[in-house]
Write a structure and sequence with these properties.
With 282 residues, the protein is α/β, with parallel strands linked by helices. It is 41% helix and 18% strand. It contains eleven helices and eleven strands. The strands form three sheets. The chain has a six-stranded parallel beta sheet. It has a three-stranded antiparallel beta sheet with strand order 4-1-11, covered by helices on one side. A two-stranded antiparallel sheet has the order 2-3. Helix 5 crosses helix 6 and helix 7 packs across helix 8.
Length: 282
């Protein structure tokens, strides 16, 4: 087994172990393996994503022939509930029944995040402001959720803590201020590892700018304070706005000089989507 397939195998092994299939081995053995026609039904407006994870859940259970190219090829597309979209395929009944919930959970989670992301991206369209995610992801599902953000048209902030040194409020409190925290991370000697500082007021912003920090997160800044920050923004510096930005107020933060808006909402609280999987004996 190659490294990539091994990683996916371990991922799905964990998911199916959580579903506690080993508690009733006789039931699992006795489930019929007759072929059934499966209908995957899209029942709400959504941006389609996560098709590969949906397919791999059944492949892990032995459905090696299952491909669903159409499902995967339509990722990133808006699908309306009124389209009554269905993807039809066949599986052995025992595989379909055993994998149904995990496959649907992954697909629904991915579609919900892609849809939430696309809605914000469309609101920001034309402003030049990029929509970023955060590390507020479901434990164990970061790969799926980060991928869903990208399919929705957003950008990944960090996959993990060490992609970028992020100076947050707890660092500043522990080390004694912006300068002391920045100095600590500079001492890591990460030649290609950038530093971003979470900024809470204009005084901190000026300190970080004087220290030569190139990436600055304006955390919970009001639109009025963002405009003041833009007035002192040096060339080559990026401003990321974060904190409390959502669909209802994002227009207030699309200010010239803002490079990105990061949102934990798109992965933490996406609006649910309705997808079902129905089976019928052939």
């Amino acid at each position: 087994m190659d490294i990539l397939n091994s990683a996916y195998h371990d991922f799905f092994k964990t998911l199916f172990e959580e579903d506690d299939l080993n508690r009733n081995l006789v039931y699992m053995k006795d489930l019929p393996d007759d072929q059934v026609k499966c209908r995957l039904k899209i029942k709400s407006d959504l941006v389609l994503s996560g098709g590969e994870f949906f397919v791999m859940a059944f492949q892990y259970l032995g459905a090696k022939h299952l491909d669903l190219d159409l499902l995967k090829s339509e990722e990133g597309q808006w699908i309306k509930a009124s389209d009554k979209k269905e993807y039809v395929f066949t599986l052995p009944f025992n595989v379909a029944l055993t994998g149904e919930r995990i496959a649907l959970n992954l697909l629904q989670r991915s579609c919900a995040i892609s849809t939430s992301t696309r809605q914000l991206v469309e609101k920001a369209s034309g402003s030049g402001v990029k929509i970023l995610d955060t590390r507020k992801t479901t434990p164990g599902l970061r790969a799926l959720e980060k991928n869903a953000v990208v399919i929705g048209g957003g950008y990944n902030h960090r996959l993990g803590q060490t992609d970028m040194w992020m100076v947050k409020d707890n660092h500043k409190k522990f080390f004694g201020g912006v300068k002391e925290a920045v100095d600590f991370f500079k001492s890591r000697n990460g030649f290609y590892t950038p530093i971003e500082v979470e900024i809470h007021d204009l005084e901190e912003l000026k300190i970080a700018i004087d220290l030569g920090v190139r990436h600055l997160m304006l955390d919970n800044f009001s639109p009025a304070d963002i405009k003041k920050a833009v007035e002192i923004k040096p060339s080559g510096v990026t401003y990321e706005v974060s904190g409390g930005v959502n669909l209802s107020n994002v227009q207030d933060y699309l200010i010239d000089g803002v490079d990105a808006i990061s949102s934990g909402v798109i992965t933490s609280y996406p609006e649910r989507v309705d997808i079902s999987l129905k089976m019928e004996r052939i």
